[in-house]
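Database export, one record per block. Field names are fixed; values are copied verbatim from the stored entry.
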Amino acid sequence: MTTFDDPRPTDDLKALDRLVGTWTVTGGAEGSVRYEWMPGGFFLLQHVDLLQEGRKVTGMEVIGNPRPFGEPTGPDVVSRFYDSLGNTLDYVYELTGDLLTIWGGVKGGPAYFQGTFDAAGSTLAGAWSYPGGGGYASTMTRV
């Protein structure tokens, strides 16, 4: 764990380096996303340009470990997504091997994405699951 006096990006956050780059998204949402590190490596930024359920969604997500003023770095990799529809959505990221889980809201909650990277790291295929049985398949392919 990082302390206030010795800030370093966590290993769990650095593991998300696999996402850096531009991806084409297909499935329940269509379009592109781009991930890049903010200088310093403490935050991964996602830029979104999608069409979902007939609506254009553009937005930005800031992904990192929370470190409130004067406190140690939190253990979870969390994010907030801001979109052109006025939503602010919170997520928790967890990467174990090739399996990426993105929890909507809180870790362990009923809304989540689970996807697996292929061996080359050029495709991430999985699905969003929502409470009550909803959700959709989603594949990201590196451009």
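Remark 1: The two ends are 34 Å apart (CA to CA).
Remark 2: Residues 11-14 form the longest helix (4 residues).
End of record.
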